[in-house]
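JOB MANIFEST
job_type = single_chain_structure
chain_count = 1
residues = 252
[input]
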Amino acid sequence: MPATRSLARGNPGDHRQLPAGARRLIYNRCVSLLKSFLLLTLCAASAAAQQQPKPGDMQVRINYLNVCSPSDADRQEIVAALERIPAAPRFGPEFEIARGRSTAPDAPMASWVRVRREFPPEAPLTNAQYSVSLDATDIIETVVLRWREPKDVMQVSIEDSVSAVASPATVVSSDTPASRIRIERFGKPSLGLSRCAKADQSAYEKVFAAASRVMSRYRAALGVRQSVPPELARLGLGSSQARQQKAAGDKK
């Protein structure tokens, strides 16, 4: 057959010598493969574009603090921040005394008193704040100091905590040792040190002692022993017995 002889004699790779139907079939398959390749390329480019963050996208970073045993470098920075706090603060005329009660999901109602004093413009700090918070289990005192020009340290927070069985008035009139220190830094992760019952913290005793001295000085400078007890009494929390009676009434 002439067609058979022509195909046998021709170049197997020469599609021009194939029948028209075969040529159309090969053409259609090539076009289909080309479309699939282009589709896969576009999908890969789209996925890569979605994975790359855009300039306006928000990126979330999570930093974990080792508050039981911070590194030596972090410990030195905490000590340096505590040493920068003025030992004899001189406040301006502005002040605030507030009291109230707050609730939070899955937490007991807490009563609190807050005292804040402002520093004059030439002072390195903007303000100093003391607060005491009481709920059914704990009494927490906190002193917060904020820097005016936060080039490195923005805020220092020192906290102590005692069991709720103690009298609020007794806690306010005492110098309870610090149990938690937190340093908020500008453009850097925060630093922290907390009392941990199961950790060996002998290397940090001097840091806790320095924080306790700062807290004691600012309790006195803010007049906590004079201003806070009357506010606690207005909340019905001047003594442990009154506080227990108030807590029982809130539950009802």
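[summary]
Strands lie at 95-104, 107-118, 125-134, 138-147, 153-163, 180-185, 191-194.
The chain is about 40% helix and 25% strand.
exit_status = 0
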